[in-house]
Write a structure and sequence with these properties.
- The complex is a heterodimer.
- By secondary structure, chain A is α/β, with parallel strands linked by helices.
- Chain A has 16 helices and twelve strands.
- Chain A folds into two domains: 188 residues, D-Maltodextrin-Binding Protein, domain 2, CATH 3.40.190.10; 143 residues, 3-Layer(aba) Sandwich (D-Maltodextrin-Binding Protein, domain 2).
- In chain A, strands 1, 2, 3, 4, 5, 6, 7, 8, 9, 10, 11 and 12 form a twelve-stranded mixed beta sheet that branches.
- In chain A, α2 links the parallel β2 and β3.
- Chain B has three domains: 156 residues, Beta-Lactamase (2-Layer Sandwich); 104 residues; 151 residues, Histidine kinase-like ATPase, C-terminal domain (Heat Shock Protein 90, 2-Layer Sandwich).
- In chain B, 52% of the residues lie in helices and 20% in strands.
- Chain B is an alpha+beta fold.
- The chains are: A alpha/beta, B alpha+beta.
- Chains A and B meet through α15 and α16 of A and β2, α2 and β4 of B.
Chain lengths: 345, 462
């Protein structure tokens, strides 16, 4: 009996060798021109719909390439490459720390092209990891909860607002649960690193019984439904099109600092068609790709001038410092402190 | 230059300087590379060590065991100083608390005292070479003193890149030094050898009979050579002078008694009674005459050799000289019924030179012509201007050159192949040639049309 079960388990494992991690979407874009010459597999945390126009334009430029686009959450994307030996030619993720660990641990291929070399220093790490979008992490607040004042411009003003009008906000503040969301963990650790006022804000929010979310979608939904009046640390590029119709919601880039997430890509060392992965990356970083990312995908492409125009935008530093927060001991200690601040009995 | 198998001084000097420059350039390359390479390693080790200490400072003890709060800045700075990957491991007794648990510990056991500051070693990790800093801190964990080992490792792509860049720069510097040294060695060789070259040129430029001493300015090192050369020249000149003086003296001392002998023989001839005795006396007189002529040619030659070093520069009228000589030779020629025709001596022809020497030359030419003329013939003595030269032509109806080349005939004591029956010293034509050369002119011998010899003496017009 045990042997039979074992055999079935083995057969299942063989039948689905790369779906050991949880796949959310798996889309096949057949090659333009009909005849399939090459297959490019992309593993990504970015929704298929967001990048679809970019993918179609890439295929129009490069006939004969069939593109398989697999979407999973950032932790799953990481472990697919790092632990499970999944074979992909390009890996796209918004989890900078996990991407950094892949590159640091020697699982990425070095790349050189005119497109990668022209990236600003802060938008790449060595010749391994390259950013193609810079996305501010914003605050969304319902104007009705402000008590007639203008939206807060800094964390200090936000803290003051929460203190002054606790009745408006109690039980109606939403943010990521850093224990469950990789992005949420990255945002709070960077907040803690960049500002001293963050812990005070966390204490005040903790006193107002905040709701913690695993992902963005339900948080935005609750905002639109009026169940939340304030969402802290939301990806602006994700939220903006979704709250465009909703009235009475303001998106705020806090002026003391606004974290700016870099969406990064790398070609895994295990890639079977690394040249196709590099080709797609070059397309993302090239002029046509950049304009498509901005216009069709709604993501701000890498642009040093845009950053210079908004000095409060702080790109999260793409360097070995990110590894520190992935350390199990550091993570445990940080989360303990965070919970002590935010989850008050 | 290399006929005798030896390198020239210039080649020798340049070769040695270039070898020296090459050795220096290579030494410089090696030195720069080594120093810069170890400096780069020290710098990177320093940062790696500082990061390790920063991590060790965050080690905490406590009831629940050892914990560490990894410092973000330490890693961030470590990553920014060079584009390298970073690994770390924190272990107690070989058991990893956190980090990369396969990062190798140092092979040799270290004492706690040694490990109180970072120790560095290089090892293989994940298919690449990494530099590891290791140190130990003791913390109180669960009331027990626990030694915690901290390892921070970094790949060394950055150092290799620095080393490659430095090597390129060092090679550039080495090549630059070599090129500069090569140029300088060429200049140095040239400047060192210039006085020698100048001296050699100055000595080489001298005419064959220039026996003045060398007073060319020369460096101290060449002084002994120049002094020796001057001593040699002085001895040579003195020797030559002595020889010529001796010849002149000898000729003079021979000529005087010969004149006496001749006078006595002529007296005896007049008083002789038998035809036989008269014939004998005439032979004696002829022999004495030839001897006197030879003696006077030796004297002429000595004068020419002596004077042609420093010939007088005076205006000489060739027309008068030629006319005078023709008159002088008339009696001697008359003895053989030879007539001397002169041409071109009505107007003066001025040249600049030594009257005595020119006269000696022309006398010898005329003497030869008379001597080799057949009896009852004529000699043409023609003075003319040709271009910027004056030409004295002496043409006889003698036996000709019979194919003998001029250089053979103008050598000292050399005589033609067809003159065995005529008395002569072989000095005459030598004198003519030497005088012509001393005046910047030339001397030519040619067959005369219709038989005989034509001698041409050229001197530049004054």
């Amino acid at each position: 009996m045990r042997a039979v079960l074992g055999a079935i388990g083995l057969m299942l494992a063989l039948a689905t060798p790369i779906s050991a991690f949880e796949i959310e979407e798996d889309t096949r874009f057949p090659a333009i021109g009909g005849s399939e010459h090459a297959l490019l597999s992309v593993l990504s945390t970015t929704d298929t719909d967001v990048l679809r126009p970019v993918i179609l334009a890439f295929q129009a430029r490069n006939p004969g390439i069939t593109l398989r686009y697999t979407v999973a959450n950032s932790q799953q994307v990481y472990s697919a490459i790092a632990d499970e030996g999944a074979v992909y030619d390009l890996m796209i993720s918004s989890a900078m720390d996990l991407q950094m660990k892949i590159a640091n641990d020697g699982l990425a291929r070095p790349l050189h092209s005119s497109a990668t070399d022209s990236l600003p220093e802060w938008a790449r790490w060595q010749d391994l990891l390259f950013a193609f979008a810079q996305e501010p992490v914003v605050l969304i607040v319902a104007l009705s909860a402000l008590g007639g004042t203008s939206p807060p411009r800094t964390r200090r003003e936000l803290t003051q607002l929460l203190r002054d009008h606790p009745e408006n906000f109690a039980g109606r503040i939403g943010t990521y649960d850093p224990e469950k969301s990789g992005a949420g963990y990255l945002f709070v650790t960077q907040d803690a690193r960049l500002s001293d006022t963050f812990w005070r804000l966390a204490e005040v929010m903790g006193g107002l019984d905040p709701k913690l979310y695993d992902s963005s979608a339900p948080m935005i939904a609750d905002l639109k439904a009026g169940r939340l009046v304030l969402a802290y640390n939301v990806l602006g590029s994700y939220a903006a099109p979704r709250i465009a119709q909703a009235e009475g919601l303001a998106m705020v880039e806090l002026e003391d600092h606004t974290l700016t997430l870099l969406r990064t890509a790398l070609v895994p060392r295990s890639a079977t068609a690394p040249e196709l992965g590099a080709l797609f990356l070059d397309f993302l970083l090239g002029a046509e790709g950049r304009s498509l990312i901005a216009r069709e995908a709604g993501l701000p492409p890498i642009d040093a001038a845009a950053l210079a125009a908004k000095p409060h935008l702080r790109p999260i530093r793409l360097d070995a410092g990110l590894l520190v927060y992935l350390d199990a001991m550091k993570r445990r200690a940080f989360l303990e402190e965070w919970q002590a601040a935010l989850i008050q009995p | 230059m290399r006929d005798n198998g030896a390198l020239s001084l210039r080649e020798r000097l340049m070769l040695q300087l270039l070898v020296l420059a090459a050795v220096l350039a290579v030494a410089l390359f090696v030195a720069v590379r080594t120093v810069a390479g170890s400096a780069a390693e020290e710098t990177l080790d320093g940062v790696l060590g500082a990061a390790t200490i920063a991590v060790a400072d965050e080690l905490r003890g406590g009831e629940e065991g050892v914990s560490v709060d990894l410092p973000h800045e330490a890693f961030s700075i470590l990553g920014s100083i060079s584009e390298d990957r970073i690994f770390y491991r924190i272990a107690v007794d070989g058991a990893t608390i956190t980090g990369y648990d396969d990062l190798p510990l140092p092979e040799a056991a270290r004492s706690p005292a040694e490990l109180s500051t970072p120790i560095f070693y290089t090892t293989q990790y994940r298919d690449t070479e990494v530099r590891v800093a290791v140190m130990q801190r003791v913390v109180l964990a669960g009331r027990l003193s626990t030694a915690v080992t901290v390892l921070v490792a970094q790949t060394r792509a950055g150092q290799a890149e620095i080393a490659a860049r430095v090597a390129n720069q060092a090679a550039g510097i080495g090549l630059g030094v070599f090129a500069l040294a090569a140029v300088l060695s060429i200049l140095t060789a040239g400047s060192v050898l210039r006085p020698i070259n100048r001296l050699a040129e100055a000595v080489g430029r001298r005419g064959p009979s220039d026996l003045r001493s060398v007073d060319h300015p020369s460096p101290a090192e060449l002084r002994p050579l120049v002094d020796a050369l001057n001593g040699f020249i002085a001895r040579l000149r003195a020797g030559l002078m002595r020889t010529e003086t001796f010849i002149a003296e000898a000729a003079h001392h021979i000529r005087t008694p010969l004149a006496t002998v001749r006078a006595r023989a002529e007296t005896a001839l007049r008083k002789a009674e038998t035809e036989e005795a008269r014939e004998t006396l005439r032979a004696v007189i002829r022999a004495v005459e030839e001897s006197a002529r030879s003696a006077s040619q030796l004297l002429d030659h000595a004068t020419v050799v002596y004077r042609s070093d420093r010939p007088e520069r005076e205006s000489v009228d060739l027309a008068r000289l030629v006319a005078g000589l023709a008159q002088n030779f008339q009696p001697v020629a008359g003895l053989k019924d030879v007539e001397i025709h002169t041409e071109g001596v009505t107007a003066p022809v001025e040249v600049v030179g030594d009257r005595l020497l020119i006269e000696a030359a022309l006398r010898n030419m005329l003497d030869n012509a008379v001597k080799y003329s057949s009896p009852d013939s004529e000699i043409a003595l023609v003075l003319s201007r040709k271009g910027d030269e004056a030409c004295v032509e002496v043409a006889d109806r003698g036996r000709g050159l019979s194919g003998g080349a001029q250089p053979d005939l103008t050598r000292r004591f050399a005589r033609g192949a067809n003159v065995g029956d005529v008395v002569g010293s072989g000095l005459g034509l030598t004198i003519v040639e030497e005088v012509a050369a001393a005046h910047g002119g030339r001397f030519e011998l040619a067959e005369r049309k219709g038989g005989g010899t034509c001698a041409l003496f050229w001197v530049p017009l004054g």
